[in-house]
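Q: I have 196 residues here and want to know how they pack in 3D. Can you give me a structure?
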Amino acid sequence: MDPKKLAEIAERVHALREIFGFSPEEMAQAVHLTPEEYLDLEGGEKDFSFTFLYLCAEKLGVDMIELLTGENPHLSGYSITRSGKGLPIKRQEFFEYYHLAPNFSRKLTEPFLCRAPYKEEYQNAELPTSRHSGQEFNYIVSGTLKFVYENHTEVLNPGDSVLYDATRVHGMMALDGTDCWFLAIILKDPSEDEKQ
């Protein structure tokens, strides 16, 4: 990520944490990191994962788009995203995300078109995993996806889908020599709003 953009996002996370009065330890716990790891990210010293941004936004009670762009989503009736125009979020080398409703406010879901690039060197690398609140639905559009959920491994092909408890460890990787495109819809846990 562009160092300037990284610094802007880090500053927004830092400012919001201070505004809401959360300690670095409280934020670290919310994003499943040590306080030192959290402060490295908040200080702009390391690039963010998608999960880090999602969990920070959840803890801070803001839309993830506000952390990424500094703008509040403002549409409330409907929001159209034209083909190829999703808000790009390239958060790690294993995935590119395109947010499909960045301007819709008070979303109950976070819809993304995702690309898992196929690279031969990924096939023997440790699969990055994550966990976050709510549930997640993935629908395979093209390519083949290796889906790992705790100690289960599945291979998903075009037209296959999976719905899962996202609070448990999960990860994905493209297989079979081609990139995998899939729709990912994160369904928020309504009880999380009540806790904030």
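Q: Anything worth noting?
A: Residues 87-195 form a domain with the Jelly Rolls fold (CATH 2.60.120.10). The mean pLDDT is 89.
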